Amino acid sequence: MESSYRANPFHNFRHCFCVTQMMYVLLRGCPQLGSALAAEDVAALVTACICHDLDHPGLSNSYQVSLQKPNRFMRIHIFD
């Protein structure tokens, strides 16, 4: 999995690890959340955390739009 992440400043494997660890902390620290979810839901959440930025080019949406080359990373991010 790590080899599928690019070596860019933010959307890299370390970021993947941090997001996944935070999800774990939320699930373990909020018993109501963990108990409200089925095992399949928890597995889906953890998988989504691990995979959410695979092969991300590390460029902002505005830069991608300025290139006028559509790609799968051109989606709305409220933080870009």
Q: Can you put this structure into words, describing what you see?
A:
By secondary structure, the chain is an all-alpha fold. It has one domain. It has helices at 13-29, 31-36, 39-51, 61-67. The longest helix is centred in the first third of the chain and has 17 residues, at 13-29. The radius of gyration is 15 Å and the shape is elongated.
H/I helix tally: 4
Could you say which structural class the secondary elements and strand pairing correspond to? mainly alpha
| Oligomer classification | single chain
Low-pLDDT stretches: none
Q: How would a textbook summarize the main sheet?
A: none
Return the string of H and E elements.
Answer: HHHH
Give the termini separation: 25 Å
How many structural domains in the coordinates?
1
Rg calc: 15 Å
What's the β-strand tally? 0
Shape: elongated
Beta-strand content: under 5%
The whole-number mean of residue pLDDT values reads: 81
Give the helix/strand layout:
Elements: H1 13-29, H2 31-36, H3 39-51, H4 61-67
Helix pairs in contact: 1-3
Quick overview of this protein structure:
The chain is mainly alpha-helical. The chain contains four helices and no strands.
What would the keywords be for this entry?
single chain, 80 residues, 4 helices
